[in-house]
Design goal:
The complex is a heterodimer of chains A (about 220) and B (about 475). Chain A has about 220 residues and is an alpha/beta fold. Chain A has eight helices and twelve strands. In chain A, the strands form three sheets. Chain A has a five-stranded parallel beta sheet with strand order 2-1-3-4-5, with helices on both faces. Chain A has a four-stranded antiparallel beta sheet with strand order 6-7-8-9, with helices on one face. A three-stranded antiparallel beta sheet of chain A has the order 10-12-11. In chain A, helix 3 links the parallel strand 3 and strand 4. In chain A, helix 2 packs parallel to helix 3. The longest helix of chain A has 14 residues. Chain B is an alpha+beta fold. Classes of the chains: A alpha/beta (about 220), B alpha+beta (about 475).
Chain lengths: ~220, ~475
């Protein structure tokens, strides 16, 4: 997919461009907010990755202006200030995701893909991955026609994984999107939740759906 | 003590000078008033009397000539009244009268005269005195003087005048003296404060301004200055400790990071080993960054950043946290139980509140033994505040160490081997302060043997749950 990277630190930009290119994206780079804004309004990008502190125009202003112009390309803001109020400010301006520096490259790649997949999503009432089915209205989960008994937090976790099926989902993404927690637990809490969920959806079946992606996170895939 | 000249420049002394000036003006005004009310009145009375007598004698001269006049003067002088009379020839030679010498020879018609005289009374005593009256040439040359002996009245007015002058002088001297003493006392206190400030500036942070226990404005100032110095000293100490601790906590992982990379470079290329080295190096870098992020977060919570407070449903957040950590606790053979009252609300920043309580839960899980218990209990206290207690049955912390562990980077010796930067409880304490609450430590759930466990208690002001 086509990614516009707006980042003024040349070294950072080069390294991010290399990582995104290696992940099969076509990347164009803008070095300041004004250039980034004009490229974003003219070009047809799938995802925009925007630094918060940019010369000439701040990242938040760029997003706000793009949204005012009716440009709905998903935007991920990168920021050295990973604070609640800055995150909320960015999301309010119209950004779709917010990632604090320093971040791992895998985290960024996973989020860029999640943004692209989440785009133009129709409101769904049913989700399915292989023979795993989720009914969002009845709040039921079945695998191979057999009803699975999930607790509310397990249901929310599975819903997020199913909405992003086929993609790598990082622990941080789960923490932020399923629990709305914006700090790093020092323990392996997420792994324990995943292993509990796994024991419910995978244990009695030949094919595993919930995979661990080493060093990154998890992926639900048939 | 500085040269005393500086005393003359103090505010108190200047005020004293102004006061002295006011005293002087007041005394002069009083003097004027008393003078005109006494001496002036006496003179006016004398003048009137002397004028009337002079006119009467002049009339007698007009009616009866010099002989009649001489007769009248002799008669009147013989009465020894308050008036004095002298009749002289036109050349000034005295014909008759109370004394033998004219004070002055008038040129023409009656004129006012004020003079000293000397005369002899009936017993032959010489009398000196002052007199005031009229002297003038009558028709055809004879000179007539009629004067009133001022006698005692001059004495009284003189005394009054000199008394007033003495009072004025004394007032001015006393004002200046009191000014000097006042400014000396005041500048002594101010100089003591200044000396303290000087000592602190030149590096002695332990110096404090003297408080004399007089409960005056200087004591109030000294107490305020001392409180400020206490706070400054504490902050300096904290930042120094923090500086050392950051250096320590960052140096170790950075050193391991460097060693791993160096060792990987110096050994022959081996993909597996190299990748392993890179992975470890990455972990070390992450741990440095985590410490760094924690320091920044703490600085933001403690600093003057304005956080946007909102109504936070503490009950929900606490129950979700217990729900979140419960499986992880079970995974490491600990039990986590929550007992949270309904309808607890605070005014706060939900992210920070969540992180603070999660730090307490993680701490408790980290420092308990296998099969240990951790309990989170949240209640509204009778005083209306919300108490959130996270208690465990672990080794606990000795009472004497409890205050210390709330400072940044303090990790007890026993905790050195476990991961963490020693910022967890500092952050909780800072978040508590930000929310106008507090964090304190007490005994926990108790346990086997001597163990008391640890209870970390977060107390926050409640918000009405309407």
């Amino acid at each position: 997919m086509r990614v516009l990277l707006v980042e003024d630190d040349a070294e950072m930009a080069a390294s991010l461009k290399a990582s995104l290119s290696a992940d099969d994206h076509e990347v164009e780079v803008a070095g300041d907010g004004e250039l980034g804004h004009s490229m974003a309004s003219g070009g047809s990008y799938d995802v925009i990755v925007l630094d918060r502190m940019l010369p000439k125009k701040l990242g938040v202003s760029v997003v706000r202006e793009l949204r005012d112009q009716g440009v709905s390309t998903p935007v991920l803001i990168l920021s050295a200030l990973h604070d609640e109020d800055h995150r909320i400010e960015g999301l309010n301006a119209g950004a779709n995701d917010y990632l604090g520096k320093p971040f791992s490259t895998r985290e960024l790649l996973a989020r860029v893909r999640a943004l692209w997949n989440g785009r133009d999503r129709e409101p769904q009432t049913k989700l399915a991955v292989g023979d795993l089915e989720m009914d969002l209205l009845a709040r039921t989960v079945k695998r191979g026609g057999k009803k699975l008994d999930l607790q509310p937090r397990e249901f929310r976790l599975l819903e997020y994984l199913m909405r992003h099926s086929g993609q790598t989902v990082t622990r941080k993404m789960l923490l932020e999107n399923v629990w709305d927690y914006h700090f790093d637990p020092q323990t392996n809490v997420i792994d324990v939740h995943i292993s509990r969920l796994r024991s419910k959806i995978d244990r009695d079946f030949a094919q595993s759906l919930l995979h661990t992606v080493r060093g990154s996170g998890y992926r639900l895939e048939a | 003590m500085r040269p005393s000249l500086s005393l003359l420049r103090t505010t108190t002394f200047r005020l004293a000078l102004v006061q002295a000036g006011i005293v002087l003006v007041f005394v002069l005004a009083l003097l004027g008033y008393v003078y005109f009310a006494t001496v002036g009145q006496l003179n006016a009375d004398s003048d009137l009397l002397a004028d009337q007598e002079y006119a009467a004698l002049d009339r007698a001269y007009g009616e009866g000539g010099i002989r009649r006049l001489n007769q009248e003067v002799v008669e009147r002088a013989a009465r020894q009244g308050p008036l004095l009379y002298v009749l002289a020839e036109s050349n000034g030679a005295v014909i008759t009268g109370d004394f033998q010498q004219l004070p002055q020879t008038p040129a023409g018609a009656a004129e006012r005269v004020d003079f000293s005289f000397e005369r002899v009374d009936e017993e032959g005593n010489a009398i000196r005195g002052r007199a005031r009256g009229q002297v003038g040439r009558l028709l055809n040359g004879p000179i007539l003087l009629v004067a009133r002996d001022l006698g005692d009245s001059a004495l009284i007015s003189g005394r009054i005048t000199s008394a007033l002058w003495t009072v004025a002088l004394l007032g001015v001297v006393l004002s200046i003296a009191s000014g000097l003493i006042g400014s000396w006392l005041a500048s002594r206190r101010v100089e003591a404060l200044a000396a303290t400030a000087h000592d602190v500036m030149s590096g002695d942070m332990t110096r404090r301004a003297p408080v004399r226990g007089e409960n005056d404005e200087f004591d109030a100032l000294a107490i305020a200055i001392n409180a400020m110095l206490d706070r400054l000293q504490h902050l300096m100490q904290v930042s120094r400790t923090a500086g050392d601790a950051i250096a320590h906590d960052l140096r170790s992982p950075l050193t391991r990071f460097r060693q791993k990379l160096e060792a990987a470079l110096e050994t022959p290329p081996n993909t597996d080993a190299d990748r392993d080295a890179l992975r470890v190096a990455l972990e070390e870098a992450d741990s440095v960054l985590d410490t760094f992020a924690a320091v920044l977060k703490l600085a933001r919570v403690e600093g003057n950043v304005t956080w946007r407070f909102e109504r936070v449903n503490a009950t929900n957040i606490l129950r979700e946290l217990v729900d979140f950590y419960e499986p992880a606790a079970e995974d490491v053979q600990r039990t986590l139980k929550g007992e949270v009252e309904d309808g607890l609300y605070i005014s706060g920043e939900p992210g920070l509140f969540t992180q603070a309580v999660s730090n307490l839960i993680e701490n408790a899980l980290k420092y308990t033994y296998e099969n240990g218990r951790v309990e989170l209990r949240a209640v509204r206290r009778p005083d209306g505040r919300i108490e959130i207690a996270v208690s465990d049955d672990g080794p606990g912390i000795l009472p004497e160490d409890r205050d210390r562990v709330l400072d940044r980077f303090v990790r007890l010796e026993s905790a050195r081997s476990t991961p963490g930067a020693g910022l967890g409880l500092s952050l909780v304490a800072a978040v508590a302060r930000l929310h106008k609450g507090g964090l304190h430590l007490r005994d926990g759930l108790g346990g086997q043997g001597e163990r008391k466990g640890l209870g970390a208690v977060l107390v926050l002001p409640a918000m009405a749950n309407a």
